[in-house]
UniProtKB/TrEMBL annotation:
It catalyses: adenosine(34) in tRNA + H2O + H(+) = inosine(34) in tRNA + NH4(+). Its cofactor is Zn(2+). This is tRNA-specific adenosine deaminase. It comes from the Bacteria. PANTHER family: CYTOSINE DEAMINASE FAMILY MEMBER, TRNA(ADENINE(34)) DEAMINASE, CHLOROPLASTIC. Catalyzes the deamination of adenosine to inosine at the wobble position 34 of tRNA(Arg2). Its EC number is 3.5.4.33. One of its GO terms (molecular function) is zinc ion binding. SUPFAM superfamilies: Cytidine deaminase-like. It is an enzyme of class 3 (hydrolase). The active site is at E54.
Amino acid sequence: MNDEHFMKQALQEARKAFEEGEVPIGAVVVQNNRIIGRGYNNVERLNDCTAHAEMIALTSAFNTLGSKYLMEATLYVTVEPCLMCAGALYWSKIGRIVYAAPDDKNSYRRATAGHSPFHPKTKLEEGPCKEESLQLMKAFFEQRR
């Protein structure tokens, strides 16, 4: 299994969000080639601005492992994390973050002038499935206009 396989799993989560009228962002947390947490945006359904895909996937992973740290895990997320999610990822000490599409409007970079808010040992990478993720976001917002 590789980055593309796990990003496609995150895209499946994003499609669930899309179908429920949520901004279509999905995430999975993987450790030892096994998904230990899944999530997609639930902001509208839960009426909770913190119910981002990353936050839900992290909580699921913490519960699966019975641990508050994810140093050996990788987060796959369809869109680059926002500042709130970056803070949670910092505290989780996650080993690696792979995102499909950049987000110039709402990513952590907008508030940090490009400085990394992640744990110093966390590796951040742009990964596969960029076009699929961008198309899903575009379709969602076109539907809303």
